[in-house]
Write a structure and sequence with these properties.
alpha/beta; 46% helix; disordered C terminus
């Protein structure tokens, strides 16, 4: 943190309180963790997953409910992956740890061309492995380290390149209804996970083992959002709030309109087609 030494402790205390408040609010809003759960925290070695584990461990000690934590890492066959970092870190915390070796790098290199973006296929392969591990380890919740910025970036990625309005849900039931994926950092900014990682001095493993891909679509979206943050302070936060205030009747999805049997007239509770904000409950606003 770029602050004077006598201010650093105060800033770190404020940051920790903010992280706990935001993570706690997300867990509560989307019923992410219940009494008796075994939460499988997926560790990549990056700042976000370290922050996730750190905050959840604290909650496991002070929360009014009892839940367990097991940290999991997938060794995907990268030759330069430091195999001892995560096990040593988990051992220092007394956290159960499991490392699963699956050479997905070989699959990715066989299926994709060198110029292709690897992250999407890599993510799908990891998800399948995590579902299997959850069954084997007896975990009923799979916790991922995606934060608020990831959610916003995914929203624009799907809109710009996929032609669909979809983001990352904080709580997701898998298609076969066998697994629940949770994202407790959904309300947390990437800036705060970076600051917390620097404060806690996490042993970060860089995510460039498969080669740097600077022209990825996600990188383009990230730069667009960073530019907006610089030029129009508050715009990104407003975009995030909009995800809590969906007005289905003012979109063009015909299947959705038919399923809701929506009338053609506008409700008097809306002005110029904008729903009343309700960012704390996360409920969808319907037009009657």
């Amino acid at each position: 943190m770029d602050v004077l030494p006598w201010k650093q402790k105060r800033e770190c205390t404020k940051l920790e309180k903010r992280l706990r408040r935001q993570v706690g609010q997300a867990i509560q809003d989307f019923s992410m963790i219940s009494d008796g759960d075994l939460v499988m925290v997926c560790m990549s070695g990056g700042k976000d997953s370290y922050t996730l584990l750190d905050i959840l461990l604290k909650f496991s000690q002070i929360a009014p409910i009892k839940f367990g934590i097991i940290a999991v890492n997938i060794d995907q066959g990268h030759p330069e992956f430091p195999k001892d970092v995560l096990p040593a870190y988990a051992a220092s915390l007394g956290v159960p740890f499991h490392c699963e070796y699956q050479n997905t790098l070989e699959i990715i290199n066989r299926v994709l061309r060198p110029q292709d973006t690897k992250c999407s296929l890599c993510s799908r392969l990891r998800r399948g492995i995590l579902y299997r591990l959850a069954d084997e380890l007896g975990s009923n919740k799979i916790a991922l380290g995606h934060h608020r910025d990831d959610i916003i970036e995914t929203f624009f990625l799907n809109m710009f390149f996929g032609g669909v309005m979809k983001a990352m849900p904080p709580r997701l039931l898998s298609d076969d209804h066998a697994h629940i994926v949770i994202r407790p950092l959904s309300y947390v900014s990437e800036k705060d996970t970076q600051l917390w990682a620097e404060h806690r001095k996490f042993p970060i493993i860089p995510c460039n083992l498969c080669g740097s891909q600077k022209n990825m679509q996600r990188a383009q979206i990230k730069e667009m959002l960073n530019s907006w943050s610089r030029d129009y302070p508050g715009r990104v936060q407003t975009i995030f709030k909009s995800l809590f205030n969906v007005v289905p009747s003012h979109l063009l999805d015909r299947k959705l309109a038919e399923s809701l049997s929506m009338p053609t007239c506008e409700s008097s509770d809306h002005v110029d087609g904008v729903a009343s904000p309700d960012v704390h409950t996360g409920t969808i606003q319907w037009v009657s």
